[in-house]
Automatic annotation (TrEMBL):
Keywords: Methyltransferase, Transferase. One of its GO terms (molecular function) is methyltransferase activity. One of its GO terms (biological process) is methylation. This is Methyltransferase domain-containing protein. It comes from the Bacteria. CDD domains: AdoMet_MTases. Residues 60-149 form the Methyltransferase type domain. Pfam families: Methyltransf_11. InterPro entries: Methyltransf_11, SAM-dependent_MTases_sf.
Length: 254
């Protein structure tokens, strides 16, 4: 199993299966099922408020996945989101579920002119990227001067992890500070993901129903098994507090 195949199973194939399952179950499942890896709605709302998201503003979501967080920001805060995501089937899944503009692009090479967006966020993406400096400097480049940038980063809380999902490179807290500094980004506020309320029951029920349909349809498929293993690994690292989610709102320093 190569690193890129494991990532494709987790982020591309699963995205397509998620969209298929949501289409069977109904549109009220779309946002919860499309917010995989981005924490609770309370955490997303906190970040959206810190970034000052509101009607009339544009928001780039870099590494948007299935598109749930961007959709939540659009529905609850009125922003116009644009999604960028390197996995083709994830782009197709978000287009099917939410019909928002989406481009196939890596966060390290965004196909947008400088200062194209009022704000940008990238949720649960930094640790899946080798060129972490590149991802952050691109976010800074495409956001207007003094525009807000939001991150959800999973940090390594110990010097060495016993194991980690394929393709993940969790920075330490000090490494994140150095990355932000090199990108010319100043932290405005930071919060621990663990401190936010869990998702409400109806949200979790929707996620569980989608998961059940996917397992019934694809549980025999090795790609489903790989995706499960990847998700269980990160889940157990978080549960054991070896990896901790942190939300960051930042602005360019100049
Ligand atoms: C844990 S998921 C989070 C998805 C989404 N942001 C969310 O919170 O629901 C990580 C996402 O990062 C994407 N990704 C992987 N490498 C990337 C890169 N180089 N640039 C941008 N996104 C990338 C994956 O395809 C996946 O959709």
């Amino acid at each position: 199993m190569t690193e890129s195949q494991a990532m494709a199973d987790e982020f591309d194939t699963m995205a397509k299966w998620t969209a298929d399952a949501v289409e069977s179950l109904g549109p009220d499942h779309a946002v919860p099922a499309g917010c995989r890896g981005s924490g609770s709605p309370a955490a997303l709302e906190w970040l959206a408020e810190r970034l000052g998201l509101r009607s009339g503003l544009t928001l780039l979501d870099s590494g948007a996945g299935v598109g749930g967080p961007a959709e939540l920001a659009a529905r609850q805060f009125g922003v116009a989101p644009v999604l960028a995501e390197p996995m083709v089937d994830a782009c197709r899944a978000s287009a099917r579920l939410f019909s928002r503009p989406v481009v196939i692009a890596s966060g390290e090479r965004l196909p947008f002119a400088a200062h194209s967006f009022d704000a940008a966020w990238s949720l649960g993406v930094l640790c899946t990227v080798e060129d972490q400096d590149g991802l952050l400097s691109e976010l800074r480049r495409v956001v207007r001067p003094r525009g807000a940038i939001g991150l959800l980063v999973f940090l390594r809380a110990v010097p060495r992890l016993p194991t980690q999902p394929e393709g993940n490179h969790f920075p330490s807290s000090d490494e994140l500070a150095a990355l932000l500094d090199r990108a010319g980004l100043a932290v405005c506020e930071q919060a621990a993901l663990a401190d936010f309320a869990a998702a409400p029951e109806e949200w979790q029920t929707a996620v569980n129903r989608v998961d059940t349909v996917i397992e019934q349809r694809h549980g025999h498929d090795p790609r489903w098994q790989t995706a499960q293993e990847q998700q269980q690994l990160i889940g157990s690292l978080i549960k054991d507090e070896l990896v901790q989610g942190t939300l960051v709102s930042a602005v360019a320093t100049s």
